[in-house]
Amino acid sequence: MTSLKVNPQFLIDETGERSSVLLTMRDYRRFLRHVEDLEDALALDHAIKTSSKMLDYGEARKRLKAAGISLE
Fold first, then answer.
1. Which run of H or of E encompasses 38?
2. Exposure winner among 11, 28, 63, 72, fewest CB in 10 A?
3. pTM of the entire predicted model
4. Is position 57 within any domain?
5. What is the mean pLDDT of each run of 10 residues along the chain (72 residues)?
6. Cα–Cα distance measured from residue 17 to residue 50, given in angstroms and rounded to the nearest whole number
């Protein structure tokens, strides 16, 4: 997995502490995509650990095709 490179700007409160972060829309979208990818990876890990039976891709594709579901 690639690392996320963003250039945040920080807003400082009256005590000198960082209170907020500003991101460009491009960085924000990249950040959201990265978080979504991490969530997907965690969901897959959980499914693998808790599943009693997993189908490989070829078998799943064959069953979907037999059910009339197009993958293209």
1. helix 25-50
2. 72
3. 0.60
4. yes
5. 81 97 95 95 91 85 90 75
6. 43
